[in-house]
Specification:
The protein is of the alpha/beta class. The chain starts with a strand and ends in a 6-residue tail after the last helix. β1 and β2 form a beta hairpin. α3 crosses α4. The protein is built from 5 helices and 7 strands. It has a 7-stranded mixed beta sheet, with helices on both faces. The chain has one domain: Leucine Aminopeptidase, subunit E, domain 1 (3-Layer(aba) Sandwich). The structure holds adenosine-5'-diphosphate.
Amino acid sequence: MTEISVGGARIRLVQGDITRVPVDVIVNAANSELIGGGGVDGAIHRAGGPEIMLELNRIRPKHGCPTGGAVITGAGSLPARFVVHAVGPVWRGGGFQEALDLEAAYQKSLELAAGSGAATVSFPSISTGAYGYPAARAAGVALAAVAGFLKARGGTIREVVFVLFDEGTFKAYEKALSAIEPG
Ligand code: ADP
């Protein structure tokens, strides 16, 4: 399954590069210092240009952005209006509130996106790269968080697209999507 309807909106899965998919808001998997990293963060800063980091330098909270938090900036030359920089948890075996922190990162990102008036929002698979969160578990948390938000208070959001870089991650999200109740 690669698509469902929830709360009058749509959740869709695609495999690809998130910097190439036009949306209103692209969510980035950032680190708490909000400084350039590798993975999807590196790709977003490369494609978006230096403007995004300059803006982050102006707004960066003194002690960084906490795990489960997020900040919003312009999107530079990306095909989007804004980028939300979300901080997912580092996987430490599952006993350290990782699922709650991951859920919070998705919720905060959607609040910021809805606050910007976005109709379309894209997410990568937050925390499942360098941060080591097992993809199958992260997929369940991510999709439940997004579906819950859309059902309760989706606001302007009409579509959330997960842009999954590799086939294994895409398949994990496909499997997890079949466990989400449409409606
Ligand atoms: P984290 O530190 O939160 O784990 P990573 O960037 O290391 O973040 O990985 C998160 C996910 O993003 C991984 O599945 C990785 O393969 C994927 N990814 C890397 N580059 C891109 C891209 N250009 N578009 C979409 N996803 C990407």
